[in-house]
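Support case: user asked for a sample of complex input and structure output to validate their parser. Sending the pair below.
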Amino acid sequence: MKILVDMDGVLADFDDGFLKTWQNLHADKPFIPIDQRTTFYVVDQYPEELKDLIRQTIAAPNFFGSLPPLPGSVEALTGMRAMGHDVYICTSAISAFRSCVVEKFEWVEAHLGTDWVKSLIFAKDRTMLRGDVLIDDRPAYEGGFVPSWEHVIFDRPYNREVVGKRRLTWDDWKAVLFGGNE
Amino acid sequence: MKILVDMDGVLADFDDGFLKTWQNLHADKPFIPIDQRTTFYVVDQYPEELKDLIRQTIAAPNFFGSLPPLPGSVEALTGMRAMGHDVYICTSAISAFRSCVVEKFEWVEAHLGTDWVKSLIFAKDRTMLRGDVLIDDRPAYEGGFVPSWEHVIFDRPYNREVVGKRRLTWDDWKAVLFGGNE
């Protein structure tokens, strides 16, 4: 199987990393706990007067590099590869690309290893990538192509309203992808 | 049409940039003029004792960022987009990724403009990308998929032995891709 895995919010814990950085830098500001997150983009759930500060926080050096892995994500990816599947890590650059692209390569190298770096793909339009499944926390995808992959939604508090798609966590990925028989 | 365009040696003039940097830094060392280049990778055509120095030259900061555009390449890409085609720029990181990934984003921003940055794709395995054509100077492609695109070879001195593929330059791209009627 060709398995595409999204990076932010699936492999790297964007929400947890954001919350810790935000509370650390701005202890006086309100914050939204992860279980109360309802929007795909963090910035969309905060009041207008904090949005610029949030964008700056995300675009700051060392933000992406210091995101922790989601529990079980690294083990799942190495497990998929050990089962013989081709695994690609999919991401895209934020518009402030200088602060994120090297850190994303470094993140993959640090948490998965050097031989995974060549499996990292930067592509804004994910519909142009081929694969059997795309594991992604984004509720829906639009792009230049009708997707060739099945979008398997990675379960997060902010995408619980999505129905009609298979839903996966790093606890049940084998059962969801392979019927629990492997 | 969905047109994939390779970056190094097609959009950015890797050979010209390498030769100028090499001659500038190592005027005492031999060099191979562009019209005598016979291998896809520059390093393969130089003697063993110079290979490490060549790899260091390519991995040095500012190497990728200072590559000149191939004459006509920028005009061709903006022309394709003006005709209504979807154009994606395809590249991959060298193993010394820290010295190249940001510079490749900056190159696209500087020579094509900010709105082209989101069309830049990093993918080592180009067979996983969908498109109608891939314009690329690499003689042949292998990867995890049977390609969905037609490989149109971008004419360079080192790929002249390739036969059986349509061949394109930035002078005749309209005729090659569209039959000369546009």
